[in-house]
Amino acid sequence: MSMFGGGFGGPGAGPGSAPMGGLGGIGVNRGGGRQVGAGEGLPFAGIPAELMAGVAKLERSEPDHAEPADTFTHQPPRTGPLTMVSLIRGHGRTFAVAVALVIVETLLLQAGPLLVQIGIDHGIVPRDFDIVLLAAGLFAASVIAGWAASGARMRQTGRLAADTMRDLRVRVFAQLQRLSMDYYTREKAGVIMTRMTSDVEALQQLFQEGLAQFAVQGLTMVVVTVVLFSYNVQLASITLFLVVPLLLVASLWFRKASDVGYRRQRDTIGAMFSDLSENLYGVRVITAHNRQERNTAAHRAVVGAYRDANDFTGHINAIYGPGTSVIGMLGLAALLLIGGNMVLDGDLRIGELTAFVLYLNAFFAPVQQLVQLYTNYQQGRAAVLKLRELLAAAPTVPETPQAQPLPRVRGEIVFSGVTFGYEPGRPVLRDVELRIAPGETLAVVGPTGAGKSTLAKLVTRLHDPDSGRILIDGVDLRSVTLASLRRQIGVVPQEPFMFVGSLRDNIAFARPEATDDEIWSAVDAVGLRELVERTQLGLDAPLHERGQSVSSGQRQLLALARAFLAQPRVVVLDEATSNLDLRSELLVERALDRLLDGRTALLIAHRLSTAMRADRIIVVDASGILESGSHAELVATGGHYAGMYATWSART
Ligand SMILES: Nc1ncnc2c1ncn2[C@@H]1O[C@H](COP(=O)(O)OP(=O)(O)OP(=O)(O)O)[C@@H](O)[C@H]1O
C-alpha cells in the first residue's frame, strides 16, 4: 500500500469488503468509487431500528457497575500476601450466608434416610399408615426445601466467586501495569496469560462450587458418622473399621498421583499458551518464512504433552473412582451380612438397618467427591501461590513513597557515572558521563548493539542504572513520581505501537482529555491532515490491533503526533530503522523539526541525515562515548564520525 494512497484501509479493506475483514473499510473513496456512509462495512456498526427498543430494555436491566475501587497507583497496595481468606475478606456477608445455607442444605439432604427409618419402624412395622404418610410427606418436603437451599447456596457462592474474581483480576491487572520492563523480558506473555485465564478460572471454580461442595460433603460425612453411631455403636464401628482404612489407602494414593498429574497439566498448559501467543504475534514472519508446517509440528508436540498430562489424570481417575465404589459396595455387602444377622437376633430394627444402608451410601459419595474436589482445591491453591508470587513481585523501577511530583522542567538531562546492564556482570553502559543542555538536540550514533536505545530507556526510567545517577534539571529521576516524570518526557519508540481503537484514541494516548482542536493541530504538525480527512470517519477512523492496518511510515507519523500532543519538555526519540521513501522521509523529518522545536531531545539516530540536524552528536560503541561535537566539528576532526560520514556521502 502506498503511504498515502489507501488511507487506513489495510489489506482487503475498503468499500465492499466482507464485514469481518472490513474494519479498515472506513469509507475511503478510492478513485471515484462508491462513497460509503459512516459505519458501513464496519462489523456491529449501528443497531437496526427494529431492534432499538429491545436494546434499550436490555440496557435498563444491565447492572450499574460503580467506579472500580482499585484504581492504579505505582505503590503496591498494602494488602498483605494473597490467600484464599484474603480474597473472601470484604465479601464476608455473602460468605456467611453461603456457609449458613451449606449447613441447611446438608441437613436437609440427610433427612431422607432418617424419615425412611421412621416410616418403616414406626409406620410400616406397627401398620400405622398416618406415620407412613407423615414420613413420606416430610421426605418430600425436605427434598423440596433441600432443592431451594441448594439453589440459594449456589446463587450465593456464584456471587462470591464472581465478585472475588473480579477484584482479583483487577488487582492482578494493576500489578501487571506496575511491573517493570525486566519482568516482561523474563516472563513469557503466554505464561502471564495463564495467570489470568486458567489460574483465575481454577480459583473461580473453587469459589463457586469447590469450597461449598467441600463443606457440604465434609459435613455430610460428619453428620452420617454421628447418625450411624447413634443408631448402633457396634455396627457403626464394624462397618467403618472395614471400609475406612481401605478408603484411606486408596485416597492417599490418589492424592499423590493427582499431585503429579496436576503439576504436569499446569506446566504443559503454560507451554501451550506460550507457544500459541508467540505464533500469533509472529504470524507474519512465520508466513513469510514458510514455517507453518514446522510450527504446526512443534505445536503438536506441545499440545501432545498437554494431552498426555490429561490422559494421565484420566487414567488415575479411572482407577480411583470405580475403586472406591467397589470398596463401598463390599462394605454394603458386609453390612447386610452383619446387620442382617443383628436384625435376626433382635438387636437391630429393620428400619434401622435400612437407614444404615442408605447412610453408608451417603457416606461413600462424599469420599469420592472430596478426593475429586481435592484436585480442584489443589488447582486453586497452586493458582493462589502463582498469583501471590506475581502480586508480590516488586517493580525493579520503584516509585519511592517519598517521591515528589516533578515541577515543570527546563529540560537539562545529565548522566553522571551511569553503569547499567540487563544482566548482572554484563554492563551495556559503563560509567557514562553526559549532559544535554535545556533545548539542545543531542543525536547518538554508533554501531548496532552499542547501547544507544538503552540510553533512551534509562532517561524514561524503563530501567534504573546499576550505579550512577540520571538527573533532570538537577533532580535524580528516582526521587520524582513516575507519572510526573513521564508526563514531561515524550517517547517515540523505534517500533511505534498502535492500539485497537480510533485514530483519536491513538493520537491522544498520552492525553486522553485533549480536545479535537488539539488533536488536529498534532495531526497538522506531522502532516497527516490530508490522510485523516480522506477517511470518511476522520479522527474516528478505526485502527486494527497493533496498527496493522497502517504502513510503518504512517505509524511513525502517528507516534510523532502522539508525542507532539503530549507537549513534553523532553523528547526521547529512537529512530525507526526502516527505510522510508523520499517523500515520507521528508514528511517525518518535517514532523520531527516541529516536535523538537524548543525542546530538549535525545535522538537515537540511525540515519546520518537525522544526526546531522542535531545540535550535537555523540558517537558511541561498546566501550563508551568516543566522540562528541557538532556535525561540522566531528567531520573536521577526522575521527569515527568523519569516516561514517564519508562512507554515507559516497553512497548517497
Ligand atoms: N531487554 C534486554 N535484555 C537483555 N539484553 C538486552 C535487552 N535489551 C538490549 N539488550 C542488549 O543490550 C545491548 C544494547 O542494546 P541496545 O538496544 O541499547 O542497542 P542499540 O545501540 O540501540 O542497537 P540498535 O542500533 O540495533 O538499535 C545489546 O547487546 C542487546 O543485546
Shape: elongated
CATH topology of the largest domain: ABC transporter transmembrane region fold
Average pLDDT figure: 84
Pairing-aware structural class of the strands and helices?
A: alpha/beta
Please, how many domains? 2
Q: Can you name the CATH architecture of the largest domain?
A: Up-down Bundle
Give the DSSP E fraction (strand runs of 2 or more residues). 5-15%
Strand order of the largest sheet: 6-9-10-3-11-12
Helix content: 55-70%
Q: CATH first level of the largest domain: which class?
A: Mainly Alpha
CATH superfamily of the largest domain: ABC transporter type 1, transmembrane domain
**Can you count the helices?**
21
Rg for CA atoms: 35 Å
What brief labels describe this structure?
652 residues, alpha/beta, ABC transporter transmembrane region fold, 2 domains, six-stranded mixed β-sheet, four-stranded antiparallel β-sheet, 21 helices, 9% strand, binds adenosine-5'-triphosphate
Task: Write up what this structure looks like.
By secondary structure, the protein is α/β, with parallel strands linked by helices. Strands 6-9-10-3-11-12 form a six-stranded mixed beta sheet, sandwiched between helices. The protein has a four-stranded antiparallel beta sheet with strand order 2-1-4-5, covered by helices on one side. It is built from 21 helices and twelve strands. The longest helix is centred in the middle third of the chain and has 53 residues, at 292-344. It is 60% helix and 9% strand. The protein has two domains: 84-392, ABC transporter type 1, transmembrane domain (ABC transporter transmembrane region fold, Up-down Bundle); 413-651, P-loop containing nucleotide triphosphate hydrolases (Rossmann fold). Helix 5 packs antiparallel against helix 7 (189-231) and helix 10 (292-344) packs antiparallel against helix 11. It has helices at residues 49-61, 84-88, 92-109, 111-124, 129-178, 181-186, 189-231, 233-281, 283-288, 292-344, 350-392, 452-459, 482-488, 503-507, 516-525, 529-534, 552-566, 582-596, 608-612, 631-637, 640-651, and strands spanning 413-420, 429-436, 441-445, 467-472, 475-476, 489-492, 501-502, 542-543, 570-574, 600-604, 616-621, 624-629. The structure holds adenosine-5'-triphosphate. Adenosine-5'-triphosphate (ATP) binds at residues 185, 422-423, 428, 448-454.
